[in-house]
Design goal:
The chain is of the alpha+beta class. It has helices spanning 120-131, 138-158, 205-213, 241-244, 269-276, 289-295, 315-326, 364-370, 411-419, 424-431; strands at 7-16, 19-24, 36-43, 49-53, 58-62, 64-67, 76-84, 92-98, 101-107, 111-119, 167-168, 172-174, 187-188, 217-221, 224-225, 230-231, 308-314, 333-341, 347-354, 358-362, 381-387, 393-401, 409-410, 436-439. A hairpin with a 4-residue loop joins strand 4 and strand 5.
């Protein structure tokens, strides 16, 4: 396990043909304390990065260019039109600012990638403010700090291990995204790792206190840091690791009921129909708009009805979506069959039968990606086929629950617990049974 605070290399922009960067302060050899220096970075045909000023004059050209602030506490840089929420329904372009070092590296086909070098604790301050509102309950912010810190440390260790085998066959595809997909950096800045928007998000006093009070504290089990996953809303029961990632188990990631009382596991089709047609008592089952405004950033507030939701497609619409997202022409859809569910009802294997092809797809995120122009909110759903008078399928109805993979910490549930007076230690014990808190630096 780690014994000192690590430096994190975060990918901000990957394989771009041109990106505008502004430096605020002195980044030797570029001077000018307090002044803004506007630059453009692009990839050259000779596998180099070309850094130019506003007039187009070349300032530097190399395979990799690293710049570090003279005054790390005050100097920062900004990236114009940085894409966030990539391929999710909240995807958009924003200008984001970051402290720490900036590395510009040449990529394939005359592209450039941009990375941020920052300490783990500074990274966490941004993650917490980017993932959730900085005005969320203080005990919840501590929970988020410990969870995100633990996940990242576990991922740094996991990157040293061989990548688990994924399946891409003629009749079955089972894939997932994880940090081992990244080469040359530790994490990306988007939701597929942890949402990281630098100092652009308001880092409140509450966030700073949560980081300070939990500094170096991790969830551990045995001699290992817990792979502490989290998502927005579990839908009433959390999921196990293997539903969303490789076929492995974690003692820290059991499926638990998110609330008082106990609800049965949601394994069969009958279980799922009953579970997803109900709205059981759960910490994440809240419509308290005032509470949600203190939890969620503004663009996440655009997502409504996340505890239970419905999506309806005509058969032609879904056929088009599947062809675009999977690259497979299924022809006329004949049947969608759930083959495997996790204990929260989330689907990990789905059989898609068409007139031209039949393919089984997994896991959780890939299923969500195939079934929506962006992503379904979760893979906890039941499917109903609407029929025409002649018996052919007219539409597909998805009745679902939850927002995200549902593994580990349920963020909305945890924030609701904090608002009810639970302490950070109690909330972490609820979502990560068997884990213990340990201060490692």
């Amino acid at each position: 396990m780690i014994t000192s605070e690590p430096t994190i290399k975060v990918a901000l922009v990957q394989d771009s043909h041109g990106t505008a960067v502004s430096l605020y302060g002195a980044y030797p050899p570029f001077s000018g304390h307090g002044k803004k220096k506007q630059l453009s970075a692009a990839g050259g045909e000779d596998a180099t990065v070309i850094l130019r000023d506003r007039s187009g004059r070349t300032l530097a050209r190399a395979k990799e260019i690293s710049l570090f602030p003279a005054d790390p506490a005050n100097d920062f840089f900004s990236i114009t039109n940085m894409r966030i929420g990539i391929r999710f329904h909240w995807e958009r372009l924003q200008t984001l600012s970051f402290r720490g070092g900036i590395v510009l590296a040449a990529g394939p086909d005359s592209t450039v990638s941009i990375f941020n070098l920052t300490g783990l604790e500074d990274y966490l301050a941004s993650v917490i403010s980017s993932e959730m509102s900085a005005e969320a309950p203080a005990e919840f912010l501590k929970v988020q700090a410990v969870t995100a810190r633990s996940w990242l440390a576990a991922m740094l260790e996991k990157k040293k291990m061989p990548r688990a085998a994924q399946l891409r066959g003629e009749d079955e595809i089972s894939v997932w995204q994880d940090v081992n997909d990244h080469e040359g950096f530790d994490v990306c800045a988007d939701d597929h790792c942890q949402r990281y928007q630098g100092i652009t998000r308001i880092i409140s006093g509450n966030v700073a206190r949560a980081i300070k009070e939990t500094r170096g504290v991790f969830l551990t089990s045995g001699n290992h840091i817990c792979d502490a996953r989290y998502s927005k809303c579990c839908g009433g029961r959390t999921e196990i690791f293997a539903t969303a990632w490789e076929d492995a188990s974690s003692p820290c990631l059991a499926s638990i009921t998110d609330g008082p009382g106990e609800h049965p596991l949601v394994i069969t089709q009958t279980d799922a129909e009953a579970w997803l047609s109900a709205k059981p008592a759960a910490y994440c089952n809240t419509t308290d708009e005032a509470l949600l405004r203190t939890i969620l950033p503004s663009f996440d507030l655009e997502t409504e009805n996340f505890f239970r939701w419905r999506v309806v497609y005509t058969s032609e619409e879904l056929e088009g979506i599947l062809k675009e997202k999977s690259g497979i022409d299924f022809g006329k859809l004949r049947r969608l069959e759930v083959l495997t569910r996790g204990p929260s009802g989330r689907v990990s294997r789905l059989r898609i039968e068409g007139s031209l092809r039949t393919v089984t797809v997994g896991k959780e995120l890939e299923i969500r990606r195939w079934l929506s122009p962006t992503h379904l909110l979760s893979s906890a759903f039941v499917i109903t086929a609407g029929l025409n008078e002649d018996g052919t399928i007219s539409r597909f109805i998805f009745d679902g629950g939850g927002w995200g993979h549902g593994v580990g910490l349920c963020q909305i549930g945890a924030a609701s617990m904090a608002a009810r007076g639970f302490k950070a230690e109690e909330i972490l014990a609820h979502y990560f049974p068997g884990a213990v808190l340990q201060k490692l630096y």
